[in-house]
Amino acid sequence: MISKFNFICFNFFFFLFMFSILNFIFMIYFIMTNLVLFLEWEIITLNSTSVVMSILLDWMSLLFMMFVSLISSVVIYYSKSYMNSELNLVRFMNLVILFVFSMILLIISPNMISILLGWDGLGLVSYCLVIYYQNLKSYNAGMLTALSNRIGDVLILMVISWMLNYGSWNYIFYLNFMKNDYEMILIGSMIVMAAMTKSAQIPFSSWLPAAMAAPTPVSALVHSSTLVTAGVYLLIRFNFLLLDMFIMKILLLVSILTMFMSGISANYEFDLKKIIALSTLSQLGLMMSILSIGFPDLAFFHLLTHAMFKALLFMCAGVIIHLMNDIQDIRYMGGINLYIPLTSLCLNISNMALCGVPFLAGFYSKDLILEMVSFSNLNMVVFLLYYISTGLTMFYSFRLLMYTMVNEFNLLCIYNLYDEDFIMLKSMFILLFMSILSGSFLSWMIFSYPYMIYLPLNLKLMVLYVSLFGGLMGYFISNMKIYSLNKFLLTYNMSMFLCLMWFMPSLSTYGLIFYFLNFSQKLYKNIDLGWSEVYSGQGIIIILKNYSIFYNFYQMNNFKIYLFSFILWILIILFLFML
C-alpha cells in the first residue's frame, strides 16, 4: 500500500509541478501581449439544444492556476512523508486531486454552471477531507463546514436561475453594460453573500477554525490557495459589476470586523493550527475589504503572496505536531529552534512574511494595501480598524514565536526532537524560496507601472509604528499569563467573548438549533410520550387488554354469570318490546 501511495504521490507531484511551469510560461506570454482567450467546446447537440463548456484564459486565471498547482504539488510531495503511517492513503490522494481539479475548474470558468460545479466540488470534497480521521470532533467540524458552504451553493443556484433572463450563463458578457439592471443588482448581491460564506466572513466565520480537524496537508491547501480563496476570486471576477453597489459598503464593514475579530481571537488561542487558521481569516478580511474599496488587482496580489507563506506555515506546524507526538498546544512547546533549526527557520520566515516584514512576500502586498487605505476617502472607524488589525497580526505572530522558539521546552525532559525528514524539508524549502521572492516578482509583473503613493511621513510610517507596537505587546504578553492580565483589564465574561470568536461558533451551531431542538423535545415529551401514546399505541393496548381480561373471565363457564347474563338479555328484550 505504501509503495503504491509513494508512486501515486510522485506521479501527481511531477504532473502538477510541470503544469505550474507550463502555466507560468503561458502567463508571461499572455501578460506581455495582453491576450485573452475565450474558448467554447460544444460537448453535445440534441434537437438544437447544445451543451457547451466555456473556458476563460487570461493572465489572471493562468497565474492563479500556476500558484494552485505549485502549492498542491508541493503539498502532495509533503504528504508522501506526513501521511505515511495512515490507512486509506490512496483515497486521501484521490480526494486531494479532486479538490485541486475543482479549484482549477472554478478558476477557468466564465460560466455560472461550471462555476457551480467547481464551487460545489470544493464544498463536497472539503467535507470528505475534514471528516478524514472519522471521530466525533471531525464529524461535527465537517458538518459545520458543509452546511456553511451550502448557503453559498444555494445562492449560486439562485444566481443561475436569475441569469436565465439573459439567455446565457456566461456572466462576463453582462458585467459592464447590464450594470444598472435590477436583475444584475440582485445577482451581484447574491454573489457577494455567496463569497462571504466561502471566504468565512462574519457571520459565517465559525467553520474556518473548525476545519482544522482535517489532516495538516489538507489545511495547508485549503487555507492557502483553494477553498477559502474561491470567494475572493469570484468577487475579483465580478468586480466591474459590484463597484458602485451599496452591498460593497456592507462588505467593507463586515470584512474589517472579521479581520479585527480573528486578530483578537488568535491572541487568546493556544492551539497551533487554530492560531494559523485565525490568521488566514484575518488575511481574508483584508482581501475582502480592499476588494470592497475597489482595488481588485491589490486583492489578487495579496491573495497570491499570502498563499505561499500560509502553506509554508501550515507545513511547518505539521512537522512540529508530528515531532511533538501529535500535541498542538503551544504551551508544551518552547526552544524548538535548538532541536529542529531548519523547520524553525521556515516557520520564522513565513511568520515574518505574514507580519509584513520589509522585502519578504507579505510586505509588498500588505504595505501597498495599507497605503491605499490611507490614501482613500474612508472614515475613521475603517482606518483605525485596519491599522489595529495589522498590529494584532504582529501581536499573535510574535506571541507564537515566543511560545515556540524562546520560552522553555515544556514537554517530557527525555523527549527527542529531530530535523531529518528530508521529504518534508525539501517541499518546505521550495515554498520558503517562493515566500521570499514571490512578492517582488509579482509586483513587477502584475503592475506595469510603479505605484507612487505620496503621503505625510507619519502616515507613511504608520504601518511600522503599529507593527512595532504589536510586536512589543506580543513579547510582553507571552512572558506573562494572559488570563491573569485579563483579571486586571477585563471581566471573565468579556475575555471569554474575545477568546471564543465573539461566541460565533456557539451562535452558528447551538444558537441556530437550540429553539428548534427545545421545541422538538417538548413535542416528544407531550405528544409522542403524552397524548399520542394515550390515544394511539399504549392507550389502545391498555383498552384491548382490559377487554380481553373481561371476556376471559366471562368465558370461564361460570353458572352464576351465565344466569345473570340470561336475565339481563330477557330484560333488554322486554324493554325493547315495550318501546
Structural class of the secondary elements? mainly alpha
SSE succession: HEEHHHHHHHHHHHHHHHHHHHHHHHH
- End-to-end span in angstroms? 94 Å
Shape call: globular
Radius of gyration (Å): 31 Å
Low-pLDDT sequence parts: none
Strand order of the largest sheet: 1-2
Helix coverage percent of residues? Answer: over 70%
Q: Helix count, per DSSP?
A: 25
What does this entry look like structurally?
- The chain has helices at residues 2-33, 59-82, 89-107, 112-130, 136-162, 182-198, 207-210, 216-224, 229-237, 239-242, 247-268, 272-293, 296-323, 341-355, 361-375, 380-406, 422-446, 457-460, 462-478, 482-489, 492-499, 504-508, 510-535, 537-554, 559-578, and strands spanning 37-46, 49-57.
- The chain is mainly α.
- The chain has 3 domains: 1-245, no CATH class; 246-484, no CATH class; 513-578.
- The protein has a two-stranded antiparallel sheet with strand order 1-2.
- β1 and β2 form a beta hairpin.
- The model has no long low-confidence stretch (mean pLDDT 84).
- Its EC number is 7.1.1.2.
- Pfam families: NADH5_C (PF06455), Proton_antipo_M (PF00361), Proton_antipo_N (PF00662).
- Residues 109-389 form the NADH:quinone oxidoreductase/Mrp antiporter transmembrane domain.
